Amino acid sequence: MSAIAPPAAEGRLTEWLLRAFAMVVLAFIVARWGYAWAIAPERWTALLLLVTESYTLILVLVARRALQRDLSIPALAATIYATCFVMMLQPQGTTHLLPEWAGAGLQLASMAWQFTAKIFLGRSFGLLPAQRGVVTAGPYRFVRHPIYFGYLIGHVGFLLANYTWRNAVVLALLYAAQVIRMRREEAILAATDAGYRAYQRRVRWHLLPFVY
How many domains is the chain partitioned into structurally? Predict the structure, then answer.
């Protein structure tokens, strides 16, 4: 695990800038994917993508203020991409590798898992890797980043029901960015909390049990 420099002191301005950024992205997502669903109401995968990503950004607005935050270039770049990726997905001209209902089923399973993990996480949710407190109960007993695991299942369901090369590339790059975010978050938590270091020894898997 790479060491990180102690984060610089920051005031409330950083927090409110991040929340304003989340609101702007949320507006774009609602406009783009709300329209995609409005012109094709049978596309439940588009609606569920809109609901999931909107809910995630709304949580940012009520998150607990970070005690320490990683403002490094890799963390910033990965977070910006992970926040904005949905605006790069292609809504129209897609191919069904799975029926719509099957993709939507995976998304619903993903939403249930995410919701459970976010209940346990509470107001410790945020965009940038940060120290907002350590959670080790519930889904966190199985993987260190259960919310990202939930995202992965939902995005697989969406992609299989809305396949294009562009969508596949956007999502592949997303998970490269997510790995950077996971690593940076673990680094800042391990650097500031002995309990988290003990948790890392108990829970080996970052994202996928028995894989990574």
Answer: 1
